[in-house]
Amino acid sequence: MVAFVFFLLVSSIMMMGEAVLAYNSISAAAEEAVRYAVANGPNSPSPASQSSIEAIAVNVAPQLSLTKTTFNSNGTILSQGNVTATWVTDSYISTRQDAKVVITYNYALKIPWTSAVTLHLTATSQMMASQ
Asked: 63: Cβ–Cβ under 8 A, 6 or more apart, which residues?
């Protein structure tokens, strides 16, 4: 009986560790994508596109199989990915723009003998881009 409780405790700690790892991965991906956007901001000689910023986030966390938003030739969204990069007006300085990356990820906890439990993880990173 004690061995069963110990195994259950160790298993639950490992499962929550995996969930924390997934959150840390999406958080790092959002931060890295925003850094890329800031370095290649709207006033840069080669400004970053929304697609290239999202690609950076997808490449930073390959183990999570993140997807970026895809557009057709007229700019209409074909499929909404779980990585979104946008340029927003800075809330303190209205003449400046911020790069903002939001990543959402549904992490499915794998708990034996129970119904599926999904954790909805979201990481947002925002930095001033125009200087």
From this structure: 25
Nearest residue to 35 via CA among 82, 89, 27: 27
Rounded to whole angstroms, the Cα distance separating 89 from 27 reads 22
pTM: 0.83
Q: Could you write out the three-class secondary structure of 40-59?
A: CCCCCCCCCCHHHHHHHHHH
- Computed on alpha carbons and rounded to an integer, the radius of gyration of the chain in Å comes to 19
Query: Within 10 A of 89 (CB to CB), how many other CB atoms are there?
Result: 12
pLDDT at 28: 95
**Which pLDDT score, from 0 to 100, does residue 130 have?**
62
pLDDT at 45: 83
Q: What are phi and psi of 98, to 5 degrees?
A: -110, 145
The residue ranges of every structural domain in the chain are 2-128
